[in-house]
Amino acid sequence: MAFTLSEIMAARRQQTQAQLQAQRGNRTAVEVDEYSTNPTQAFTFYNINQGRFQPPQVHMVDPMPHDSPKPPGYTRFVCISDTHSRTDSIQMPYGDVFIHAGDFTELGLPSEVKKFNDWLG
User: Which InterPro entries match (predicted)?
Assistant: First the structure.
């Protein structure tokens, strides 16, 4: 499935308008991406012109040092992926929400799952 640049820009304008309408004071409603139930379509849509097109809801940030303090009143998300059973050397920062986005084992062995679970604990 291919999208034209005008379709991409129309979707971007729609999302930007929805975000602006959703803002109330310092609170912002987080919209569910329309492609969240169809990963193949999402990949196709967001992969087009990847070098020039940044989805409007994606904001690149610089990583923080693992030992930086968390400002009061903020929620810290700690996100990692693709550890492949190599968690021994990871220095994890304190966080309120931990997200491991997949591939935590090398081969999917029960012993790797147990090791990962022990590491999480």
Answer: Metallo-depent_PP-like, UPF0046_metallophosphoest
